[in-house]
Amino acid sequence: MAKPDVSIWRCVSASVMGTSHVTQKLPCQDAHAVLILDSGVLIVAVADGAGSAKRSQEGSRCAVDTSTEYLAKRLQDAKPQTADDCEALLEDALSNARKALQSLAPGEQFGDVATTLLLTIITDHWLSTIQVGDGAVVCRLVSGALRVLSQLGQSEYINETTFLTSSDYLKHLHRASLPSNEVSGLAMLSDGIGLLALRYSDNTAHEPFFLTMFDFAEKPDSTRTELEEFLQSARVCERTDDDKTLVLAVRNDIH
Hints:
This protein has helices spanning 19-24, 56-77, 83-104, 194-197, 207-218, 224-231, 234-237; strands spanning 9-16, 30-36, 42-48, 117-122, 126-132, 136-141, 146-148, 174-179, 183-189, 198-199, 204-205, 244-251. The two termini are 24 Å apart. The chain has a five-stranded antiparallel β-sheet, covered by helices on one side. α2 crosses α3. The protein is of the alpha+beta class. The chain has a single domain, classed as Phosphatase 2c, domain 1 (4-Layer Sandwich), CATH 3.60.40. β10 (198-199) and β11 form a beta hairpin. The chain has seven helices and twelve strands.
């Protein structure tokens, strides 16, 4: 069997500080990580640290790093064959990330590293995602249609969401899968740009936003710096003062 083309995915991603954090002299509490394995499997994590947590920037960074490293190690050994297998693996990665957070901030300090976490893997057979807290996962299908795989949750309400540090986080997990051969693009974002990207009334994607973003990602010379400049632009910041993360991935083999 031929080895998969590791260049099948082109990714552009950025996390930037919101204007409110600049004013308050707070660090960026968003974090993300993107890995493309030698097998061609894509792994993406996005985390948004709780604004009220003392060390949320450490929590979000720890969550994305430990979860993607865990998934990379597990996926080196064997590829999950079913959607249920993929979702079970993602839940294991969440559990592993939570343990890492407990080590980072043990006991009563645990809430100091509160963070959300979105994880997505794309294998030869499946795109699967799992969600704790707010943020969004949007797929562009081969047909060109957009599909929101994430749960609307409580993104419209300030400081009302579930965190990976929450004792009942397992009760609030949201999972979704679809065949990966139906997908031509993936976008993952923190709730900082939800107002630009999503219609909360019916949890659907704002088509002009994603058409522009996917077109940008497909350009061979598009860069992280350009994406950062867009997320920090006046037209974006006048809509949201929160930290913002956007990860874009497009397939190179079906255009």
